[in-house]
Amino acid sequence: MKTGLRATALVAFGMYSAAAMAADVSPQSFIGDKMRGTAGGVALRVSVAQSEIKSDINPSNIAVATGGGLFGALLGAAIDAGKAKKAEELITPLRNSLTGFDVDALAIDTAKAETADLSWVNATTPSFSKDTSAAGQSGFLDTINGDQLALVTFSYDLSPDFSSIRVVEHISIVHKGATNAQGAAIKPTDRLSYRNLDYNQSVTSVVTLAGSTNDKAANAALWAADGAKRARAVLTLGFGEVKRLTIRSLSLTPDNIKAMNSKENKRIVAGGFSGRQLAAEGTGTTTVWAPGFVSAQVLPDTVAQ
Known about the structure:
By secondary structure, the protein is an alpha/beta fold. The chain contains nine helices and ten strands. It has helices spanning 2-14, 33-36, 62-65, 69-97, 103-115, 134-141, 216-249, 254-261, 301-304, and strands at residues 42-47, 54-55, 127-129, 148-158, 164-175, 199-208, 267-270, 273-277, 286-289, 293-298. A hairpin with an 8-residue loop joins β8 (273-277) and β9 (286-289). α4 (69-97) packs across α7 (216-249).
């Protein structure tokens, strides 16, 4: 029973709909030949909006259970607020133990390593920002010298049951001019809309704590113990995983994506994400195409003890 409950919690942590597994390959899902052939044509901006680790709170289903309406919405909001308050209480010791762990620097180093060998990315030091708003990103886009900007955004959080830490990297390449990559006219305010992006992909690493249970308080205590050594190790491991997956993602071709979407690849759930299982890539690591690469693994015992 406990295994079933934890599986349900992890699925809620990051479930993608089956509809997202369409066989068609969108032009935003891969880097085209034209972009690859433009030396130093893409500027780089790295962002980490948060300043501390977050917890993922599942929205309440109470509105559905009560038939919706104002009562259901208010009751659901109250339940979600209660979950958030409890999560904040549990996560505070971990946040305190992570003081001094520089995730921003880790994000910058990760993005630089991912793009170091890409001739189409501008070799200058990437800019960094805590502002991930559309207005802030669009405003910065107007300041670059070139015509394209890669917005590399990182986030990290705990699963609802505190058993896992997730690191997500999202890359969007936006076009500065008045036309998109296909030459169609666009308004400045629409440059960050999905249909006008030159590229758009996410990769995710989910690492589960060895020995975790359904007890959120116990899991939270394990993450915070010993100066948060487990959380520090998992964050370092998670950023390393998204670096590996992003390098692979940036090299994908339409044929690669079609092959991963093939029904010949079994659909499984890994780290809470439903996707097509890919070939094994290391002991204890499961990788799926969700779409977007997702890797799931358990924190090695050598670190967890």
